[in-house]
């Protein structure tokens, strides 16, 4: 019979909210589910092959939107599992997050449809989604709407973790858990810089180079890797300085 290897102690984070699902979480799940229904391409069965191919293109955009919203839901769920907070501040921040997500759905879907059309080589269809003669202004406005939603969600998650950090004594966070919580907060604050940069580039770059602004979102991966590497090194050093527990 194979022996189970316990998880390394340095990766342990005591989950304080796993006893039961709160009403706040249930309400949040309902709002996330409603946001997803707003993204559904069509409930009507295609009546021709052209309608089917159009629906499949819509499904690609829907898939991108789905994973973005799923990622936001997962972050929110993880926060509740880690800290189990349900005080007034947590309720207020959750309300703000859900409001932003519902307002963020249509800019996200619109941008996804435009991007998919360009990727699939149907730039003409993508251009038709903008007003003729005002394409540049509207593309820049789309960057602003999309970027604003990302900045808002990132800063709200920063406030979630900053609030948990203020409650660290009540939550009985260990030194390592306090270190992790501070890192989680800083990570989300850093993530808000990327859409600000992308939006600024969209307004600064000449019209024929606006597409470069979209590639700046790849900085999410770069900053995430660098910040994660620094966190891992500092975390191992912190654990190494702690006295060993047990025999």
Question: What does the model show?
Answer:
- Helix 1 runs antiparallel to helix 2.
- It is globular and about 65 Å long.
- The protein folds into two domains: 17-129, no CATH class; 132-242, no CATH class.
- 73% of the residues lie in helices and 0% in strands.
- The protein is mainly alpha-helical and 247 residues long.
- The protein is built from ten helices and no strands.
Assign the structural class, choosing from mainly alpha, mainly beta, alpha/beta, alpha+beta, or little secondary structure. mainly alpha
Domain module count: 2
Unreliable segments of 5+ consecutive residues: 1-10
Chain-averaged pLDDT: 84
Q: How would the global form be characterised? A: globular
Give helix and strand order, one letter per element, not per position.
Answer: HHHHHHHHHH
- The strand count comes to 0
Output the radius of gyration.
22 Å
Report the end-to-end length measured between terminal Cα atoms.
Answer: 27 Å
Helix % is over 70%
Q: What proportion strand?
A: under 5%
Provide a count of the helices: 10
- Sheet with the most strands, sense and barrel status: none
Oligomer: single chain
